[in-house]
Every structure is written in structure tokens, then in C-alpha cells.
Structure to design on (96 residues):
């Protein structure tokens, strides 16, 4: 894995380059999470964003694990919402 990108196999078996948006460790769960995108758009034109559990010590053969609980998804969604609000605030300040 390079610093900001990594490659996964897509459903069609082709390699897909993904960009790391951010990583974090949750005090609540004790797990490490990676939030990333393949820069594709959904039906509304928004960039697709994904999240997985990962082991930061496993740098050679990083295996992404699925997020399986609503609690974990809520933690990630809260962080994403906070980041989006901060970006909007910065964008508004730049426009002024």
C-alpha cells in the first residue's frame, strides 16, 4: 500500500485503485478503520465512500474486514458528517 492509495480486486476481477480519505482508531471499539473511495459516483452524483476494519500493523498484505455492527457504522457516519460540515464551513469562509 502506498501512502494514500491501495489496490483491491473489483467484482469483475479487475484491479481498482482506491484513495485513502482517512484512518482512525476508535476508543469505543478498539478497532482501526479505513475510509476510502474509488472515485466513482452514485446515482445522485455523490462520490462513493467505503469503510472497513483493518490492522495497521499488517502493511504488506492489508486485509480489509467488513464493518458488521450498526454502532460501528454510526461512529463512521458521525465522523464523516463532522468532516463534511468542516469542509462546508471552510468553503463558505473562502467564498466570503
Amino acid at each position: 500500500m502506498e501512502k494514500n492509495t491501495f489496490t483491491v480486486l473489483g467484482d469483475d476481477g479487475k484491479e481498482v485503485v482506491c484513495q485513502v480519505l482517512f484512518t482512525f482508531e476508535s476508543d469505543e471499539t478498539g478497532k482501526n478503520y479505513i475510509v476510502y473511495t474509488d472515485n466513482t459516483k452514485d446515482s445522485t452524483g455523490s462520490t462513493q465512500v467505503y469503510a472497513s476494519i483493518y490492522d495497521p500493523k499488517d502493511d504488506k498484505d492489508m486485509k480489509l474486514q467488513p464493518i458488521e455492527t450498526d454502532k460501528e457504522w454510526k461512529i463512521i457516519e458521525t465522523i464523516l458528517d463532522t468532516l463534511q460540515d468542516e469542509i462546508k464551513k471552510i468553503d463558505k469562509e473562502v467564498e466570503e
